[in-house]
Amino acid sequence: MRVRRAAFILVACAALLGASIWRSLESQQAPLSVNWPPGAVPLAALAAALAIFGLLALKLGCRRLARNLMRQPEAPIVESSHPDLKGLCRAITRRLQSAAEALGRAQARSRELELQLRIVMAERDHAESIIRSFSDAVLVTDAFDELVLANESAARTLGFDPATARRSPIASVLRDQSLIGLMREMRQSGSTGGRRIVEHRVGGAGGERIYKATLSCIAAPDGQPAGVVAVLHDITREKEVAQMKNEFVSNVSHELRTPLASIKAYVEMLLDGEVADEKTMREFHEIIQSEANRLGRLIDNLLNISRIESGLVKISKKPLSLTTVVKEALEVIAPQARQKDIAIIEKISPAVYQTLADHDMLCEAVLNLLSNAVKYTPAGGRITVQTSIDETKRSVAVRISDSGVGIPAKDLPFVFDKFYRSESNSRMAKGTGLGLSLVKHIVESVHQGRLFVDSEVGVGSTFGFELDLIE
Fold first, then answer.
1. pLDDT tens, 77-124?
2. Nearest-5° angle of CA 417, CA 422, CA 428?
3. Mind listing the pLDDT tens digit for each residue in 253-308?
4. How far apart are alpha carbons 132 and 149 in whole angstroms?
5. Which helix (H) or strand (E) is 113 found in, with range?
6. Using CA atoms, how far apart are residues 275 and 282, in angstroms rounded to an integer?
7. Which terminus of the chain has fewer CB atoms gathered within 10 Å of its CB, N or C?
8. Do residues 434 and 441 touch, judged by C-beta distance below 8 A?
């Protein structure tokens, strides 16, 4: 700083001296080309030297000042002039560092929360995908009874559009007031640790369906109910099967009891010596044999259906004539037809064509159809048995027509179902509903044939099947 001030002073002095000399020259009104006054030249030279020296000093002072600034910034000047500012700067620095660290931690926490949010959203989407894939109907509501989630099965079952029903009150989405009441009661109960299972019936265009409704509350973090999950499992078929099994057990018990009671009664009469003539004794023996055969057929039907369905039945297919099988079955059923005075008309083609089949099982199928015709044909009726060959289709068919009571049109699609019996004809003859089911298994499952039925109430029925011929 001192060097810089000295340089400025020298430059100023040189400038003043030069200015005074210039004024003195101008006062003499002499051009610069004339002779200088005495003493003017040495003074001008001195002024020029002083100016040059001042400029050099100023340059050196500026360089030194720059070096000092490079070595030591303005902090020493600040410290020398303001000694309390150092602590303030340090405090501000520490606070800035703390703020920077807090900002870094906040950014890291933000990234962590963003990652957790993505994981939660992915898990939610995964859970919703699983729920939507359920075959059972699933409904999820929140604490305000608004629909949060529903799968396609629930939409089909309860009749609403899942795309527009979300976040809508269930009272405006569902028409089933009973189900709405069940879900509200479950939420209001406050039970988050248990489930409620009820049987719920839903009516629709296809008829009434029965569902097992399982309801449970969703627990919030504070333990309070935050919504309800309802799962509807269709048990209509299970109920029907259970009912059919109960009816089957009842019918089988009756079918077993009836021939056994008859056999027991006639045997007791024979043992007691109540039969005196040979003709009556023979009649008793025939009745006992007939009831025993009836009992054996019932047991055979049960065993055959079980074996076919389980795949344990032994099948021995050989080339044979369907005509021969039909004649054998007619010989077996003839006594039952005579007891009811039913005429059997045969229209059987010659035994020339053959099919690949199991003899015993095919005979069992024809016998069941004949027995069914005799059972539902009133006394004095007729049964027509016909076999035919179709050269174009390379098939052979058998048709058994009766003049019986017939089958209502609504029952025709189900006559080959297991345990099924038409209600309108159940009073006419007892049965288990297994005969036609066994025929279906033998023809379609074992021989890959085709079944058909045609019936008219009060006119009669025609049952039959078709098998492929051997090439």
1. 444 445 577 788 888 888 888 888 888 889 888 888 888 888 888 887
2. 130
3. 777 787 888 888 888 888 888 777 888 888 888 888 888 887 887 787 777 777 77
4. 9
5. helix 85-132
6. 10
7. C
8. no
pLDDT < 50 positions in the chain: 3, 25, 28-36, 40-41, 69, 72-81
Residue 149: Cβ within 10 Å count: 19
Contact 304, 344 (CB under 8 A): no
Which amino acid, one-letter code, is at 415? V
Q: Which of 375, 280, 362 is nearest to 327 (CA)?
A: 362
The residues, ordered by sequence, that sit 6+ positions from 135 with a Cβ below 8 Å of its Cβ are 153
Long-range CB contacts (within 8 A, 24+) of 116-122: none
H-assigned helices in 133-235: 152-158, 162-165, 170-173, 177-189
Please give the Cα distance from 402 to 410 (Å, whole number).
20
Amino acid identity of 214? T
How is residue 174 written in tokens? 């569902």
Instruction: Kindly report the pTM of this predicted structure.
Output: 0.48
Residue 406 contacts residue 369 (beta carbons within 8 Å): no
